[in-house]
Design brief:
This protein is α/β, with parallel strands linked by helices. The protein folds into three domains: 203 residues, FAD/NAD(P)-binding domain, CATH 3.50.50.60; 80 residues, D-Amino Acid Oxidase, Chain A, domain 2 (2-Layer Sandwich); 60 residues, no CATH class. Helix content is 35%, strand content 28%. The protein has eleven helices and 18 strands. It starts with a strand and ends in a 10-residue tail after the last helix. Bound molecules: flavin-adenine dinucleotide. Flavin-adenine dinucleotide binds next to helix 1, strand 2, strand 3, helix 4 and strand 12.
């Protein structure tokens, strides 16, 4: 039987980042990816901050960068809109097919082995680790990492899942420098529609929402733009917006990335936050193996929570607010936001820790009054009033 120190199930950003760190520590690690190609099928907008991607230890290859010219985000309510500057946040759009392959290459160079079209079927505990059953036979390992994405978390809990659709669209109404986020709680309950431009006249256009038919909702969003367009790719995927699961670690088994609920509850963005789950878990596993001390695994959970817990708590609160607003309230809230608050948020906002910008915008007097009526005293956890 084949033997490794660690088996990682799932060869996407979190699993590959973990494998890179484990291999860097000198331990043996294999990544099992059920799809036939790393990064494919791509199910991601690829929107990420430069700072976030650097923290993951990646300098994106030129081939992975689809758009570095994002200047602003247009945030729309059913009948209003405002524009927030995004230059300071240094956001870029990456091609996940290329990005994931880049991390796979990093991991391989450090000594990790990657297998595609190899599905993990079960991981059964043994006296000193696991027997992992795969589509290509059995592997024994000391540590098992679940990086299987939303599919893994859904098998345990369906509550925090939204349906999404994202199409690659060619259309003259896509502006290379502007992201669009459109709120409408009738059409996209609890979420929004979006445009992530990859170039002038081309981009990734998507919707997500609770209980929606994502294909129908996206079709009407695209139609609402008017004019001609072509759809050149369609992707349907669930997203998780309910925050992190309770325990990332159980014995010698570790859960990372979307499988651990590590994507942002506001936007479902997970390249950075899930990737950091992989980085921290890989480092902790490497250290635990070296020191023969499983208690070191706890460093993974601690490091991730230290970095993201308070931000995710605030994002969850912002999500709860959105879920309770009807379209009239969204319009009123938008109308209550003064221009100077938007300028402040543009100047100081952080793409990865955006609850401060949300708090700034909602903290404007009239807006805060509305938010307080909805959130009651919980508002203090989001806004300083
Ligand atoms: C429509 C959409 C748009 C998004 N846009 C953005 C964005 O713009 N910016 C951003 O930061 N995030 C975005 N995200 C979120 C981001 O894609 C995820 O958070 C991130 O990819 C999570 O990485 P992961 O490694 O945890 O899991 P995943 O990327 O989901 O990868 C899990 C991997 O495990 C594999 N797998 C599953 N089961 C098995 C098995 N049994 N055996 C072997 N392999 C298995 C899968 O094939 C997959 O490759 C978007 C998500 C969606 C759905």
């Amino acid at each position: 039987m084949q033997k490794y120190d660690v088996v990682v199930a799932g060869g996407s950003i979190s699993g590959l980042a973990a494998a890179r760190e484990i291999a860097t520590s000198g331990a043996s690690v294999v990544v099992l990816e059920e799809d036939a190609e790393i990064g494919t099928p791509e199910h991601c907008g690829g929107l990420v901050s430069l700072g976030g991607i650097e923290d993951l230890g990646i300098v994106p290859d030129q081939s992975a960068i689809e758009n570095q010219k994002i200047k602003s985000a247009r945030i729309m309510s059913p009948s209003g809109s405002f524009e927030i500057g995004a230059e300071k946040q240094k956001v870029m759009v990456l091609d996940r097919r290329a990005l994931d392959k880049q991390v796979a290459f990093q991991a391989q160079r450090k000594g990790a082995e990657i297998r595609v079209r190899c599905s993990m079927r079960s991981a059964e505990k043994t006296d000193d680790g696991f027997t992992v059953k795969t589509s290509e036979g059995e592997i024994t390992c000391r540590y098992f990492v679940d990086a299987r994405g939303v599919a893994s978390i859904i098998s345990r809990n369906r509550e925090g899942v939204l349906q999404s659709a994202q199409y690659e669209v060619y259309a003259p109404w896509i502006d290379r420098s502007t992201i669009e986020v459109a709120f409408d709680n009738d059409l996209y309950p609890g979420f929004f529609a979006w445009i992530i431009p990859t170039g002038q006249g081309m981009g990734k256009v998507g919707v997500a929402g609770k209980g929606i038919n994502a294909a129908n909702s996206l079709a009407s969003y695209i139609e609402s733009k008017g004019g001609r367009y072509s759809i050149v790719r369609k992707v349907f995927a669930p997203i998780w917006v309910d925050g992190p699961i309770q325990n990332f670690i159980s014995g010698k088994s570790v859960i990372i990335g979307d499988a651990a609920g590590q994507s942002k509850p506001t936007t479902a963005g997970g390249i950075y936050t899930c990737g950091m789950g992989g980085v921290y878990a890989g480092q902790a596993i490497g250290k635990a193996i070296k020191n023969k001390d499983d208690s070191i695994l706890g460093e993974y959970e601690k490091n991730w929570l230290d970095l993201f817990k308070s931000e995710f708590d605030k994002m969850l609160l912002a999500r709860r607010l959105l879920e309770r607003l009807d379209n009239k309230a969204i319009d009123e809230l938008f109308a209550a936001i003064p221009h100077e608050k938007i300028e402040e948020a543009s100047a100081t906002g952080d793409f990865d820790f955006h609850s401060a910008a949300i708090a700034k915008i909602l903290g404007a007097k009239a807006a805060a009054k509305m938010v307080k009526a909805i959130l009651g005293n919980e508002i203090r956890r989001l806004i300083d009033i």
